User: Fold this.
Amino acid sequence: MSGEWKNKLYFGDNLEILREQIQTESVDLIYLDPPFNSQATYNILFAEKSGEQSAAQITAFEDTWHWGLEAEKAYHEVVTLGPRKLADLLQALRSFLGSNDMMAYLTMMAIRLDELHRVLKPTGSIYLHCDPTASHYLKLLMDAVFGYKNFLNEVVWYYRGAGTPKAARARRHDILLFYAKMKTMHFFDPDPIRQPYAEATVERFAHYIGNVRDGHDYGLQRLHPLGKHPDDVITHIQPIAPSAKARLGYPTQKPEELLEEIIKSSSREGDIVFDPFCGCGTTIAVAERLQRRWIGIDITHLAITLIKKRLQDTFGPELTPYAEIGAPEDYPSAEALATLNRHQFEWWALGLVEARPAQDKRKGPDTGIDGLIYFFDDQSGQAKKIVIQVKSGNVTVSQLRDLKGVMEREKAVIGVFITLKEPTKPMLQEAAAAGFYEPEYFPGRQFPRLQILSITDLLTGQEVQYPRVAPTATFKKAQRQPKGSDAKPQQNAIAWEDHNNEV
Ligand SMILES: C[S@@+](CC[C@H](N)C(=O)[O-])C[C@H]1O[C@@H](n2cnc3c(N)ncnc32)[C@H](O)[C@@H]1O
Assistant:
């Protein structure tokens, strides 16, 4: 591995980052699992706190790739400046589809796929994870960008599931479009992902099997000692069950076993694995475990916070140091984020104190809580609650009084007020007057009931003060895993839950 290299986790739009930060022909393997324009709002489910069933539903990201100015701009760029085949294809698709959401999605994908082609090494390969809603169009795009001659497989990931539509067969598969940058040069090793032979095959091969074709005897046929060559249908990997230990609460989290197959067969140790839509970081976590180098990008701070925590929980001190890029590092960049997108600022600020977002502001009335931390400080099994408010505008003492009201209503033992602007003197006095939380099991220990933390405080290492004895109950914890090619991924021992009585 090169001494200068650092694994990288980027916050931001992958198109911009690809263009500005990722060098031509620099990555060995790309896996992408872009959100499909399904009109759906994906909700992020955080760990349930003990004693309460309801989980906070926060919009992790919305598939908002609708036809609009941005799509029109990307379309014009590809048509005027992009590779000829891609430009021709996009124009044909537009005359077929019109200017609708599907066309917006395909345009936004086209411009990104072109960049991904640029950054892939000649020996590299790419897996585009999608489903049958758009896979047929995406395959055309991939043909236009990578060349149909470099098409390797349409891998079908077949899984169990619930729900049966009345008028059609149940949909039970995803598609992985697998292309090489150059089919004559790409790396592929089937050995780590060979499958056991069927019993009947083993039985048949227990006896002599001749191999005479066209009058020529090719000699004894043998089974490969490591198993059957992998074929293009994956049936032995299941989605992560909603209740499985491995589930971190990210709506579209993919199983580690799937990424393990891809990474083991299409890269070597030390290679650079790149996921430009990295979600809660499945690709990155597996790449880290399998001792590959990695680059991940996501556009939401929720994802970035989850990934950071997942890496820390999974690898602890064995985690290779990585660079986090694009997140605010100082007051001006925090202010810029707040101006650009208040929700992202809030998620980022909550991530700084390892709090989970409390509600989706775009849905339902504002409850006065932006974030929550749960912790245990006694033997009752009941988590204690910290409520958090995040402010990016001007702050006043009356907001602090409101927070006190919320604490009482929510039976929270501590309230935290995170503010971009420095607090006023009356605010500091109000906070001091709120007194202390004194946990029963920690005689003599006091924690301020009302804590004000400015962004500058947080960026210079200050933390929320509360009893930190056991792991907090805020996020689901990823299981600790050893590193190396033989290290096993998290098992999805629990089958997919059936929410539908029909089988
Ligand atoms: C389907 S999820 C990926 C899930 C991931 N494979 C996992 O196992 O967690 C898609 C992700 O793409 C991110 N995303 C959407 N548009 C993006 C963009 N333009 N740039 C970077 N990330 C983006 C979303 O925030 C979301 O986390």
